Amino acid sequence: MDDIEFWLSGVDAAQKHTPASTPAPAVEVNNRPIAPPTSLPVTLVSRPSDDDEDTNKKSKKKKGKKTKTKRKDKGDYEEAPGITTPSHEILNGNAPQTPMVSLEQVAVLSSYKLLGENSSIKLAYETRVDVTQKHQIIVSVMFTNNTSYPIKELDFNVLDSLNTKLIRGGQCDGVKVPFQLPPNSSNEGQFAFTLQSINHPQKLRGTLVYILTNDDGSTHEKLDFKLGLPCSSFMVATPYDRDSFAELLAGGELEYKNSIKLSAVPGDLKQTLTSICFFTHCSIVEAVEASASLYSRSIQDHSVALLVKTLPNGGLSIDGKSNDPNILSSILDEISIILSQ
To answer: What is the residue-averaged pLDDT of the chain?
Structure first.
């Protein structure tokens, strides 16, 4: 079936034609880099038989007593107000779905963006949302100590806007980061923000203050940064079957339209879809040889439907529909930047 006809005609086209292909398989790609699990020693214990029991008793008499050490589990730690930690924060729905790709392709993708850096410290961040929290976003910040000296007393602060505010937990200024950074080390902290509207990209000014201890003593340092929250930060890859997607397009709910054309796109369609889905949190509804339909929904129930189609000259066209014109325009702008890099 022709993709343009499917996009425009909705249910009628779905009933008149037989699908030309099966839906493309999708895998969930976690946009948060995860460290490899630490391997712990495992001891296999076999239960002795009755015949071996007497032999074992005799051998035990010859051997000295062995002392057993029991490994203690770590207790729960205390969290600072206004900040969560990766092991305590469980979020739903922001793992983007992509077409089946090789592990090499996935490894290249990372959702962490540079937040700020100087000679002593580097900050990178990613955003996460929970579909049950319509007015909250989590910013996960990776702190990296670039020096051979310890960094301590980190204080993270972002200036509030009328729309977006850092949850400080009763603290007056910033949020005290509940860890220190040993030399040449990294650690991660998560900061919660409340917000009202999500249909415009946002940029917030922030500052990190900390103490750097070196051979000459301790100095107070500061790093200024700008925190960007694009509209895709609030989108969630939402599975949608083909028939329901056709009904959505034909139902009139997505009244706003927009489109872009790119003259040249590196890689094939599979790679293009992987990048779009990973960074803008879309799911693939259906993919054929030269086109694909994508869908995403925001935490405040804005819908975005996209038709991605390759052009004969090696370019790409993307037609979009949404129930919010600002979110649709912003998502298309983001895709243009993503595919031009």
So the answer is: 77
Nearest CA among 257, 13, 256 for reference residue 3: 13
Q: What is the mean pLDDT of residues 305-316?
A: 91
Supply the pLDDT for residue 303: 96
Measured distance CA(286)–CA(293) in Å, rounded: 5
> Do residues 156 and 204 lie in contact, with contact meaning Cβ atoms separated by under 8 Å?
no
| Lookup: tokens for 157 | 């602060």
Mean pLDDT, residues 197-223 taken together:
94
Angle 261-263-267 (CA atoms, 0-180°, nearest 5)?
Answer: 105
